[in-house]
Amino acid sequence: MTAPDADGGDPADAGSVVEAVFDAVAETAPEIRAALPGRRVKSGTENASGESVMAGDLYADELLGDAITAVDGVGSFVSEEREAAVDAGGAVGEGAYAVAIDPLDGSSNLRSNNAMGTVVGVYDAPLPATGRDLVAAGYVLYGPITTMVVADDDGVREEVVEAGADGSVSRSVVEDNLRLPDDPLVYGFGGRVPDWTDEFTAYAREIEDELKLRYGGAMVGDVNQVLTYGGIFAYPALVDAPDGKLRLSFEANPIAYIVERAGGAATDGEVDILDVEPEGVHDRVPLYVGNEELVERLKAALD
Ligand code: AFP
Question: Which residues form the Fructose-1-6-bisphosphatase class I N-terminal domain (predicted)?
C-alpha cells in the first residue's frame, strides 16, 4: 500500500506512515505526562459521548491532533473527544490513513494518581470502519514509567519512551515479540456488579475462583496487566447499558487488534470485535478481551 504525502509528493508505504504516526505519538508523551499535574480538574465541557472531559483530556487531544495531522500519509484524524473528523489532506483508503485516538483513556484516574494512557488506531478506511480496516494499533501507558505498545503486521512490541536532557525523545524496544502468557493469572471487570447481567455474573463468579482481581479503572492499564500476566479484561454489556461503555473506534478495535496479534481474542459477546460493523464513529460496544480459552468460555456463558 502506498500513501502520497500531504503535499501529494512521493508516496509513502503503510509501514513508514505507521512508524511516523507512532514517532509523533511518542514525541508528545513526555509533554503530556509533564502537563498532567496541572490538569487534574474537569474542563466543564462534555465530549461527543456525553461524558465530562478533564483538562488533561483536552490538552492531550490538542497536542496529539497537531502532531498526528502533520504526519505525511495521514488523511484524517478522529478523536473520542471531538464530534467530527479533522481533514489532514490525502484520500483515506486510497493511499492515506485515518488515525483514531482516545487521547487520555482513564482520565478519571488523574485525581487518584493512577495509571492512564493514550489509545491509537491506524485505519486504511474512513471512519466509521471495522477493525479489519486497521493496519496498526497501539497505546501509551502512563504508569511508573512511560511505555508504548505497538502492533502491526510484524507482531506486537513494547517500548520504553523517555525524554532526554536535551529534550529529545527516545523509543527503546524492551520486548519485540509480546505474547499473551498461556497460563492466565488476572482478571478485571468493569461496571457495577448489580448492573451485570445474570449470565455475565455467573461467568464472573467462575473466574473469581480461578484468577486474581486486577481492575484499575483505565482500560489501557488493565489490558496491559492481561498482556503481561495473561487473563481477561471486560467492560461488559450492562442491564441498563446493553452496549457497555467503551467506544468501538477508539478503544475496543485498537485493543482487539493488539491482543489478537499477541495470540489472544476479543469479542462483543457474540462476534469478534474486529468484525463489528459500526453505524457511527462514537458507537459503544461491550468488550471482552484476553486469553482465547477465557473468551470462548465467556461467549458460551452469554449464549
Ligand atoms: P475515563 O476516561 O472517563 O476515566 O473512562 C475510562 C474508561 O473509558 C476505560 O478506560 C475504563 O476501562 C472504563 O472507562 C472504566 O469505567 P468505570 O469507571 O465505570 O469502571
Answer: 42-158
Q: Which residue segments constitute the domains of the chain, with CATH numbers given?
A: 2-175 (3.30.540.10), 186-302 (3.40.190.80)
CA angle 291–104–46, rounded 5-degree value = 120
Beta strands of 97-221 (E only): which ranges? 97-105, 116-123, 134-142, 146-152, 155-163, 169-175, 186-189, 212-213
Q: 148, 161 in Cβ contact below 8 A?
A: yes
- The x, y and z cell numbers of residue 58, run together, are 483536552
What are the binding residues? 80, 102, 104-108, 215, 245, 251
Q: What is the mean pLDDT of the chain?
A: 93
**pLDDT bracket for residue 231 (50, 70, 90):** very high
For the chain, percent of residues with pLDDT exceeding 90: 85
The ligand 1 atom at the shortest distance from the C-alpha of residue 217 is 15
What CA–CA distance (Å, rounded) separates 254 from 268? 14
Query: If DSSP codes are grouped into helix, strand and coil, which group holds residue 261?
Result: helix
Q: What is the pLDDT of residue 1?
A: 38
Report the range of poorest mean pLDDT among 87-101, 127-141, 253-267, 279-293. 87-101
Query: From the CB of 226, is ligand 1 less than 6 Å away?
Result: no
106 CB within 6 A, ligand 1: yes
pTM comes to 0.94
Residues contributing to the annotated binding site for substrate: 105-108, 215, 245
> What is the Cα–Cα distance from 49 to 39, expressed in whole angstroms?
21
259 has a pLDDT exceeding 50: yes
Q: Check pocket membership of 217 for ligand 1, CB cut-off 6 A.
A: yes
Q: Distance from the CA of 95 to the center of ligand 1, in angstroms? A: 34
Between the CA of 170 and the centroid of ligand 1 the distance, in Å, is 29
